[in-house]
Every structure is written in structure tokens, then in C-alpha cells.
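Deliverable D2.4 — example input (C-alpha cells):
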């Protein structure tokens, strides 16, 4: 199988825990973009993800807000798969119960994101009772209120179809539980050493290295096994 698309999470996969970008990962992503289509698949807002894409040189194809927002390029009209207004309906309940605080709410298009400062299990029960089609997902950086049927996998599948490719031709990188649907759906899946055990359990390759160093190692693994031809001098 030849990989046509590499989809990668950002926080905790290309960056460290403090969200600092690994310089080696930056170089590999830039070189990788000369070989295959690179998609940033993240829980971040569309504007932030597009900015990252500019700096990384990946061309603007992104899956943002955990699949709630998809765009094929900078000049494309984003596709909204989430429902921000529906997610907002449960927000006052979480504020009253837990003093929950929303993050970058003005920039979100398809979900609501909260600071990680309350009991997640109890909040999940409240949200489930209020609207069974909503869920809370902890990405280790924030808690996302989202539709259950929205995921990075669904968003990436919609995006990949515009490239005349299939999910079987995708190599996906991620480090968090919200990445699991994408990792399971991709043709080949990879993760980094800082990922939890259930994420590692669904991947074809688990790097012994954490964060951006693990991403670089994972790309090397893809090249060594012939999934990607190293025509751009990746390393």
C-alpha cells in the first residue's frame, strides 16, 4: 500500500506538552509535503489550524475542531459538520454545576471547548441526560462538547475523498483518545510514546520516542517499510 495522505494531530504529536513545536518535526513535515498530501487533524479552531498550516507549509487542508470543521485549502469554504448552537445549550448547565469556563468560544464553529477544571465523569452523565447525542471528550489539553457522530475520522474521510484518495491510502498520527476513530479508520496508524495505552493498542506502530521526536521516528518507519517513497530527502 502506497500512502497518498498523511494526517497528523498537532498538540502532543508534533509538539511537546507545553505546545512547543519540535524543530525536527517541522522540517520533516515540510519535506513530507513534497511527497504526499499532509492534513492537520486537530481539536484546535480552524483559524489556528490554518495558521499552523501556513507555518508548516502543508497547503491548508485541515480537519479542525475534532472533525466538526473541514477545509480542503485556504481559499475553500469550510464544511461545518458539527453543531455549535446545540453544544451551547448544555453550557449554562455546566457553568452552574461546575463553574465551567469556555475557551476561544468566539472562534469555534462546530463545538464548544471547556477548561479542564471539573469532574469529567459527573459532567458526562449530566450531558448524556440533557442530550444523548452530545458527548464530552478530554483531549488532555481541554474538554470538548461535541456531537457523538462527529469525529476526526468522519471529517478526514470527507476531506480525503476530495483528493481522489481513500482512507486505506492514509497514514494517521495521533496521541490522544479523540484520535482513536481516525487511527482505526486509516490504512496505517502510528502514535508516539506519550500516548495512553488504549491509543497505542489500535496503532500499527508505536514509537519509543515521545511527541515530535516520535512523529519523526514514525515517518522514518513508513519510509523504511515502503509506505512512502523518500523522494524529498525527508531526513
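Example output (designed residues):
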Amino acid at each position: 500500500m502506497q500512502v497518498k495522505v498523511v494526517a497528523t494531530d498537532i498538540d502532543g504529536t508534533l509538539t511537546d506538552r507545553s505546545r512547543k513545536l519540535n524543530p525536527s518535526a517541522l522540517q520533516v513535515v515540510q519535506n513530507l509535503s513534497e511527497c504526499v498530501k499532509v492534513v492537520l487533524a486537530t481539536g484546535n479552531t480552524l483559524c489556528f489550524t490554518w495558521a499552523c498550516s501556513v507555518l508548516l507549509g502543508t497547503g491548508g487542508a485541515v480537519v479542525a475542531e475534532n472533525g466538526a470543521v473541514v477545509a480542503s485549502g485556504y481559499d475553500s469554504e469550510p464544511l461545518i459538520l458539527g453543531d455549535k448552537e446545540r453544544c451551547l445549550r448544555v453550557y449554562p448547565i455546566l457553568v452552574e454545576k461546575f463553574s465551567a469556563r469556555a475557551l476561544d468560544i468566539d472562534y469555534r464553529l462546530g463545538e464548544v471547548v471547556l477548561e479542564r477544571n471539573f469532574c469529567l465523569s459527573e459532567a458526562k452523565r449530566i450531558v448524556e441526560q440533557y442530550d444523548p447525542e452530545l458527548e464530552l471528550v478530554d483531549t488532555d489539553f481541554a474538554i470538548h462538547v461535541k456531537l457523538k457522530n462527529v469525529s476526526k475520522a468522519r471529517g478526514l474521510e470527507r476531506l480525503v475523498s476530495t483528493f481522489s484518495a481513500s482512507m486505506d491510502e492514509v497514514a494517521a498520527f495521533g496521541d490522544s483518545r479523540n484520535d482513536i476513530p481516525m487511527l482505526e479508520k486509516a490504512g496505517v496508524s502510528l502514535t508516539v510514546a506519550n500516548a495512553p495505552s488504549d491509543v497505542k493498542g489500535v496503532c500499527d506502530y508505536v514509537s519509543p520516542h515521545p511527541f515530535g521526536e516520535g512523529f519523526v521516528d514514525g515517518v522514518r518507519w513508513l519510509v523504511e517499510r515502503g509506505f512512502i517513497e523518500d523522494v524529498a530527502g525527508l531526513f
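The chain has a mean pLDDT of 96.
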